[in-house]
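hey so i finally got around to running the thing on that chain from the lab meeting. sorry it took forever, my laptop kept dying and i had to restart like 3 times. anyway pasting the input first so we r on the same page abt which one it is
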Amino acid sequence: MRLFSPTHILIALVASAALLGGADGCSSDPNVEGAKRNIGLEDYPAALRLLETSLAENPDNVEALTLKARALFLQGQDVRDPVERQPMVEEMMTALNRADALSPGDENIGNIRLAAWAEEMNSGSSILQTSGGDAENLGKAIQAFNNAVYIQPDSASGYYNLGLAHLVGGNADEAIGPLEEAVSHGTTDPNTYVYLGRALLSTGSNGSRALEVLEEGVELFPDDAAVRAELLNAYAATGQADRAVAAYEAAIARDPDDPVLRYNYGSTLLQAERYDDAIVQLEQATDLDPDNANAQYNLGAAYQNKATAVNARLIATEDDAEARSLRTERDGLLEQALPYLEAARSLTSAEGQDPADICMALFQVYAQLNRTAEATEAGECAGQDMN
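ok and heres what got predicted. didnt touch it at all, straight out
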């Protein structure tokens, strides 16, 4: 499974304090007036006790309900752990939802809801960006986004961040639901489709749904390169070779100098055993980006695999003249494979990665060309016992 980087985490840049400003006015309820004073003094427990008394006498007191939600929100700002805030969020939302039902469209109610949502979004984003993959911190980030979704269940960005937090933690199955919700709530971020497509593909049983999602993403965001690339990868991953080829050709017509497109297309053609076509694309990829070790390796593999196909014909023929011709053709293809495989080995080693797989390919090529010393060295690099 690919690693999911928290690069596209949304940050809810909402000044929650400003949203809660303004005059409170006067109330005929002394408990409400006392609660206002206690809120001003930041004595939230005392304010909440007075408001509970007021609401016991009149459960439909909109002002008391709104103040209760405000006191709980302000009290929650001093609680750093989103898990500990959860019951406070739930109690706050019970009061807010009741107040909203009694006084729909009240600006104060909307401001508290938005401020609380922004607080949870900012909290979750901050924790996620600094989590370093730590499971405990990821759990806190997930809880913060769960709090945000609870506060604003119609906000696509809350679901997006929740899904992304699950992906950062390596839980694709858990990410699918929130990301689907983000899509259904009209997300404006094309990365939602990218990550949802990846999550669906990673489960191994949702390939058709992944294609639906990514095709919808391309339709909605036709100029977004990441969504288009993800759809192309999904076609290849689900064995939709014909659709992948058609889509790659259209994409390359739009952007012929994109080395990643050329590499991916060439690799798809290589898997389809269309070696000549693969070579054309992978040569373009290596010309555009000579430092791409994978492109160098796949180009070498394309020549090597084509040589293997020629060798099968060589083994099958009983005609001496044809055999000599095929042997010359095979060896020529193996010679063409070598510089690309050698470049891939050098680049991979320079990146601090193990080139054993590339060395095995080199061993096979050197051995077929009777280059014994080089074959021995490559075999040792591949971990073979050459004694």
